[in-house]
Amino acid sequence: MEVVFWIGRILFGGYFILSGLNHFIMLNQMAPYAAAKKVPAPKLAVIVTGLMLLTGGLAVLTGLYVRLGLWLLVIFLVFVTPWMHNFWAVEDPMQRMGEQVNFFKNIGLLGAVLLLLYFWS
Fold first, then answer.
1. Rounded to whole angstroms, how far apart are CA atoms 41 and 3?
2. Distance CA 95, CA 71 (A)
3. How far apart, in whole angstroms, are the C-alpha atoms of residue 40 and residue 44?
4. What single DSSP character describes residue 63?
5. Which residue spans adopt a coiled-coil conformation according to this UniProt entry (predicted)?
6. Is 88 helix (H, G, I), strand (E, B) or coil?
7. Nearest Cα to 81, choosing from 58, 98, 105?
8. Domains held by the chain: number
9. How many other CB atoms are found less than 10 A from the CB of residue 46?
């Protein structure tokens, strides 16, 4: 079962690491999207959230400062999910569907992070 645990850590931590890196690689595309969602200081917000994702993912992957990393992911998911993926306010059906998928994906990720926090006590 230890192999399963490591595969899970690699996949779960890797997901957040890649998402965090994407915030930096796609900064010039993500900042205007954040601005369109009325995020204050959108470029800085994308950088800070990228650092939160990267740090959280690395914590899960490496096993270093895991609780801190998981709390960063909780904070990210709790605040970013309803702000950036507010599907209930989107009129275009295709855009609404995309935002709804991302909203519920993040809710599922939040549940997984909270479970890890419980078991990593």
1. 42
2. 30
3. 9
4. -
5. none
6. helix
7. 105
8. 1
9. 24
